[in-house]
Amino acid sequence: MSLETMTIFSPQLAARLDALVAKYPVKRSALIPMLLYAQDEIGYLSDTVIAEVAERIGISELDVRNVATYYSMLRFKPAGKYNVQVCTNISCMLRGAYDVYERFQEELGVGHKGVTPDGFFSLEEVECIGACCWAPAIQVNYDFHDELTPGHVPGILAQYRSKADNEGKVPHA
Amino acid sequence: MPRLVSHPDEVKIVTRRFGQGAANIDKYIELGGYESAKKCLAQGPEWIISEMKASNLRGRGGAGFPTGLKWSFVPKQSAKPKYVLVNGDESEPGTCKDHLIFLHDPHAIIEGTMIAGLAIGAKIGFIYLRGEYRYLIEIMEKAVADAYAKGILGKNIFGSDTEFQIITQSGAGAYEVGEESALMESLEGKRGVPRIKPPFPAVVGLYGGPTVINNAETIATVPHVIEMGGAAYAAVGSERNGGTRLFGLSGHVERPGVYELPMGYNLKKMIYEVGGGVRGGRKLKAVVPGGSSTPVLLPEEIENLGMDFDQVGKAGSMLGSGGVVVIDDRTCIVEFALRTISFYQHESCGWCIPCREGTDWLKKSLTRFHAGFGVEKDIDNIQYLAENMMGRTFCPLGDAAAMPTLGFVKKFRKEFEDHLNGKPCPFAKHVELAVV
Amino acid sequence: MADVTFTVDGKKLTAPAGTLLIEACRKVGIEIPAFCYYPGLSLQAACRMCVVRQEKVPKLQTACTTAVAEGQVFITDSPEITQARKATIELLLGNHPLDCPVCDAGGECELQDMTFKYGAGESLYVEAKQHREEQQWSPAVFFDRPRCILCYRCIRMCGEGMDVWALGVHNRGVSSIITPNGGDHLDCEQCGMCIDVCPVGALTSGSYRYKTRPWEMNHVSTVCTHCADGCKVTLGVRQSNDGSEIVRADNRDKSGINGDFLCAKGRFGFDFVENPERLTKPLVRNTAGKLEPATWEHALRFAAGKLREIRDNKGGSSIGVIGSNQTTNEENYLLQKFARTVLVTNNIDHERSADYTAFARAIAGHEAKSASLRETATAPAILLIGGNPTEEHPLLAWNLRTNVRLNHARLYIANAKTIKLERQAKAVQGLPPNGYKDLTALLDRNDTDFSKAVLAEESLLIVFGQEYRGEQIEALVAWGLKRGNVRFAFLSDYSNSRGAADMGLLPDLLPGYVPVTTPGAFATEYPGLPTTPGKTQPEFFTAAAKGELGALLVVGANPVAKLGVDPVALKNTFVVVQDLFLTETAALADVVFPAASLYEKTGTVTNTFGDVQLAKKAADRAGVKPDFEILVRLAGSMGVDVKTLVPFGAGNVTADLGQSRGAQSGEADRHAVWLAANGLEPKLSPFDPLAVLDEIERLVPAYKLDRLNLFGGNDAPVEPGLVSGFVPVSVLTGTQDDLVVPAHDGLFTSGTLGRYSPALKELARHQAPALAEAAAD
Ligand SMILES: Cc1cc2nc3c(=O)[nH]c(=O)nc-3n(C[C@H](O)[C@H](O)[C@H](O)COP(=O)(O)O)c2cc1C
Ligand code: SF4
Ligand code: FES
Questions:
Q1: How far is the CA of B194 from the centre of ligand 3 (A)?
Q2: Residues C151-182: pLDDT tens digits?
Q3: Is C623 left (phi over 0), alpha (psi -120 to 50) or beta?
Q4: Does any domain span residue A110?
Q5: Which residue stretches of C700-739 are H helix?
Q6: What is the extent of the structural domain holding A22?
Q7: Residue A91 sits in the same domain as residue A56
Q8: Which residues on chain A are in Cβ contact (under 8 Å) with B167?
Q9: Are residues A56 and A25 both part of a single domain?
Q10: How high is the pLDDT of residue C666?
Q11: Does residue B396 line the site of ligand 1, with CB under 6 A?
Q12: ipTM for the complex?
């Protein structure tokens, strides 16, 4: 099958996935990074994403789902364009992570795994993100922000709002 | 950007190039990089392993297994290809040291991986980073590409007829994948469920081939061991615990950060001198010495405690991943215990009964207990459950969940009792913990 | 592997090195509890129930993954181990719904049993339980997540055992959940093996759930009536208003030829017995030309009178008899004996789905060349030519897969089509231009990877499909015999296709493939048999169309539908049919007798490998009679001394009537003693098919059965090589290839019978809705 012509991904991503399956001694090793990159582009692992990844690797969709559902960064419903992940694990908790988390809840008006009505932000309480010595820390998509206080929250949100404005992109629903 | 810290007591070996732009390959080489690998290429496997054994370097991933010994277990002859695997899954709460290595010194990881490969006769090394570390994966990938471009990696490393390839890999959010055999499963594109042992990875590992797996810090230390010589490296540390270690000070400490200190460094001193003491001058209540899975220590237990695998072990806890979490007197230990067990409940792979059901049960009991609905019997039950998980699970995650729980209940029973009889939590304002 | 000696609980044990401790212990009766361990499937070590203490090892070890080695010392029973097991069960029961009173598995649940034996009497758990709604995955499979203990047996069985891989696990930790490949439904072979291996009530059977409690059933092991593999199946039977009802079929007695295995047909396809369309009264065509219910006496008298009249007036050669592929050997034997000795005709045939005649002829005189089904699970090298076992011989497919997986057997496949078993094959070969007949030549050329690999094998088990007929079979067998260490198995369709041929439901061959022209034991015992070959099945209908067939007796067959017979052809033929349903054939009959199914009678059947098994009466249906009894009564009504048909009674009694066991005699024996003392017929009645089994053993070559095994519920192989003195093919009436019409029933079809199984029809619809609809049109 000619995946180039049938892919649901952008040409850049399709090319990247092509390279990925060729990278490892065993094709299937590409599965997890493929899912992540596909999620980065599409927003979540839709049925069509699962189907195409299964096809590309040559395993069943069930197999893909068995694996995908295991990993907590992978999701099956759209998140916000900017997914705010607040670590509340011990080191962050001791330094006020819950206050930061509460402030995000107030500012965004959503709770754990909630998405703002405009689809712009989503919020998630997450486990340790490996920034314990710079606690409390969060990640917005893949960006780290550390040594936070609740006071930093509005600024961080504003930063992402203006970033999107500059990129001139419509937030995806 | 994570802040770099420093303290006069630090012995900068592994962190020597931090903050100097060594992610750039030319800078790395300028700072003496890749000389160790060249030396190893010339000296051969036996020499490398004997240097490593002499260094007393013990695995920085948690268990502290002697690295040289581990490498020597790999069979010389093998029908299947051998592999080196770098464990950069760094997910143990309280731990962020590998983060800095990937950020500031990615070539040290490449060089260490090559040396491990030369030692065991592997042609491929994998560097596995947790998925959250996307920006570090990008740094790592660039470093690998630069090394290929310079002929440092590839079919003919340093122009020799020896081949070494490096492949980077990303996880996608799973603490259990840090366990060595689960990591291999994950790298093979599967669920992160550990494997039955024996066979051990050194014999049957990734893709069924003999595999050495080491923590990222362990690997980043290797070029320095070679550079200094095994014996010289060993001399920096304490007995049977060679060299330095990257300790992550976090929690209620005045100057949190990652400090490189000699093995055996006194814990009290680490907190009060290196870390500047308990934040706001408050009283120390407890210390988690080596990441969230290590049993908590009381202030009186750290007086003369040297931070190495053996001494902390003797004190009834573990050096673990070197993440020192400092807890002040305003902290609710029940809430701390709950947050700890919530993590393990969330991260249990679900394979075996004691861990899957035990972490869930403990989390539920502690949630109820902390919310003020506990009864006397709960305290014994919590202890009973944790005791019955210990040593019974398929992999050490079950122990990692049970050990700290036992520590909290045994050492802070009084505080558990204070939560009883409908009293609200005497400390915390976050009565309801969100379920992650 | 060399034996090693080790110590368990102070006892010295010996086992081959590398044996799993759990197996070694079980063999000697030391019980090691386990949920996740399942023999033959990959190791799991997840449930932690099997923990034992090994000397000098710091942690408790799992017996399911510990391979025994010389000098090891284990303790499997100590306070520490008792506590570990108790705690594991306590943990397991935490989130468990404890809905045993309404759970299908209640009473046969491993979790219940283990809790009873090892568990805690009281629960410490006071938290909320994880709850999820029950799901229906297919007509056959329901899933109740809260009861699931995540032993992964179902996943492994489906994947490793069945090679279907339709089950997976989603999420992790306590949220882990077994998930079917269709997301909310199962797309698979619907074998139900997952239900079978589920130790608890998480996977339940659509046809059985909430019907009854296990202890309210009688469990009868018998033989499946569907395909030619002949799995042992355990029927769960309960008393009902009109007899006794089969509520479940499973494989709880894993001692059979099929080991762990049972397919969808065996497990769910028993429900035809309860079909409301089942005939329960004899039917006789009235003067208005309509079939109407009649008494047995009337129907028998009427049929017998007409048959006698036609025989006496037009001669036996004007009567045709068609037998069944699904009746017992005793019935088939009796039917041909009835045809030959009572109706005095060789006009007897059946729907031939494989050319057993040619096979018997080819192998005649060569002993130990025919393979039993069991060998397909152990033979080191198998050459499978033609056929599609996955669809048509599920047990054979299972055996081959298991053999490859566990014993690293080498499977070679030559087939015109692509078949699923190729996934297990070491080498695959398409067909040479001239088809199967050139295959041996291709092999002999020894110039392909396939032929080289096959020829390099020291021994070979050749399993060949119905594609093979006549001379091709002889050529293949001759090729194999020349090679030496080769054994054969030949595939066909129905549960007793082999038995029908073996018992002589053939116009030219007596039981045991003895030509009617060259009399053997049977003809010697019953002198005066017709010696010219009779008509074949198609010839009956040609004769009928010409007005030359006076009567036709059809037992358990539906030739009208199968051969597409024009009903007009039978206008002037008196037709008697014995069947379960008013089939196309029965609808044209003058007299229809309601027959019992294989599940409602006793007798033996022979699978396509020649393994004879005992079918035991499990259920009862008011109004119906076994074909055996119908035939005996029909003969009796024709004025025949039934003792000549069924040698029952004192003269032939060989049983000791219980006396030799004296005081230990059971009820039945004492009753027999009383009967004998009063001069009454003990034990054997004219309706006792076992009286005929005695005769079969005596008169049919190859049927020298190991009775101890047979009656013990095992399979006893026949030895077709015992057939000898076959006449050359050319002497026989032309080539008979065209008489063989394979049915190629798949996973959810079973000839005419399958049409009456709602469960199988529903499964077929679920698996291929479009196909099933097309077929129904
Ligand atoms: C549940 C669990 C999680 C682990 N996570 C990590 C990890 O994130 N990083 C790591 O290096 N080792 C981790 N380990 C330890 C590894 O299994 C392994 O021992 C280590 O990578 C070996 O490297 P070392 O000898 O250099 O320490 C974990 C172990 C367990 C049981
Ligand atoms: S202890 Fe058991 S359930 Fe827990 S992570 Fe290890 S294998 Fe998985
Ligand atoms: S049987 Fe050994 S762990 Fe389940």
A1: 15
A2: 999 999 999 999 999 999 999 999 999 999 99
A3: left
A4: yes
A5: 707-711
A6: 11-68
A7: no
A8: 23-24
A9: yes
A10: 44
A11: yes
A12: 0.94
